Every structure is written in C-alpha cells, then in structure tokens.
Predict the 3D structure of the following.
Amino acid sequence: MNWYNEFADHIERDAALAPMTWFKLGGCARYLFRPRDVAELAALVARARGEDVPVRVLGAGANVLISDDGVDGVVVRLDQPAFCGVRRRGHEVDVGAGVNLMPFSRDCSERGWSGMQCLAGIPATIGGAVRMNAGGRFGDISAVVQGVDVLDPDGGVERWGHDRIEFGYRRSNLGGRIALSATLALREDDPGRVRREYEECFAYKRKSQPMADRSAGCIFKNPEGRSAGALIDQAGLKGTMVGGARVSERHANFIVTERGATASDVMHLIDVIRDRVLRVFQTLLEPEIEFWRPSRKEVAV
C-alpha cells in the first residue's frame, strides 16, 4: 500500500507554506501533515523513510527560506496539543517541541522562572530552537536544556541527555532527528528582576534589529571573533536590493522583503553579499538560515 493512503485523512496536498514563514515567501508543500500525537508522527516518518519520501519539520518558519518552487515530500507541523504542552516539575519544565519560544520566554519571565529571559524576541519553536541552539548576545538555549526526547528517522523515540547533545554556535548534533519535547532547568527567582532582564534583552533587539519588517532573523553566522553584520556594513552593502529583497539599513545581517519579493530575490542577494564580503575581507560567510529546495531529502526542523 502506498504510504499516502494510510494518512490521507490527515494530510493536505499542495499546501501554501509562505504564510507559515517570517519571510512570507516560497512555494507549496506537496504534502502537509499535522500529526495528532507522537505515535502518528512516528508511523508516518517510518513509512515515508521506507519509500524514500523526504520529511521536513517546519517550526515557526523564522529561520528558513523556501524555494519558489516549493518542496517535495512531507512537511510536518507540530502544532497540535500533544506537542504544545508545558509541565513544571520542581526546577525543571517539560516543554513540547511545538511551543512558541517568544510567548513562552515572556511567560517564564513574568512567573519569575529564570533562564529564558536571554531569549527574548527570538522567533522559533522549542524544537527548532534546541536543534539550532538558538540565542544571541545574551545567551543560548543550550544553557538550560537538560534533555530532549527525539524521534529518529526510523520512527523510534529516544531520550537524549544534555551530555549527549553536542551544542555549538547555532547548531547541535541532533541531525535528522525530530525534537519532540525538551526538559529545561529554570530556577525560581524574583519575578520583578527576571521581568526587567527580559525587557532589557527585548528592548535591545527592538532597537538594533528590524523586527517590524518581514525577515528571517540573522542571515549569516558570525565568523569567529567577528560580526557578520559589521562585515556586511563595512562592505557598503546596507540598502542593497535585488528585486524585492533588501539588506536592512538597521542591521546589515538582516534581509527584509517587500511586496512582490520572491525567494529567488533573497537567494540572489545572499550570493551578492557573500561574494562582496569574500572579495573585500577574504571571509566566506556561512548562512545561518536553512534553504529548502524541491529535491532535498532529509529531516529538518
């Protein structure tokens, strides 16, 4: 039996992905699947792998650029209640992979649960944040991750403790595994102080980044000891446009888009930036965002 027939009642075909991303760009997913629980997700992943069907997980859509031609295979959204729970156990909090990081970090700060305030204003789901070790100048999520429940490409569930997860700068070793939930160590503190720290972090982002524009956050990783935004700025690229995509005048490591922009515009502008910075500074910038193309066959979050 074809894998699709087993899940047809819960799959949307030719689903528009642009509205689910911060860029608001890109084509359709051949199949969009919103599993109701882990068992349903595991069954689909195992069947899809057995038939060589690519599976991707789309979280908050803030760190991804989707091709104008869309993507093949299945795009999974972990937005059902089974993946969006929050449960506190003493100093630890179990958080579903589909939980939105921004309101969660704000809520923790208001409750005086210290540890998340450094992530103020970072768009992601918990699953995506753990996979890429989301963070900024004030800290990374890896500092509070105690463990992660993951689904491997064969549909098996494993518990990975902090020591097994190799966190680095905007990366982890979760690879093709799907994060299902994370256990975070948050200490109880004075709500007023924690809330002030959160507001300070958020105010810095609001002042220094184009949060009101359509973007996908930082486009490039910072080279060791240097700032990607500063290199792009010093290369004279602020305000540079390709079609409807423009290097932000507020923060040069952001690309913002206007009405009528395409994913191809953004890709071409990324190439312009990389070529100029390489030529001027002999530094090759590494993208921080993910690029989804039609034939890419791997699990991604």
The helical segments are 3-7, 38-50, 101-111, 126-132, 191-208, 228-234, 263-281. Residues 297-301 have pLDDT under 50 and may be disordered.
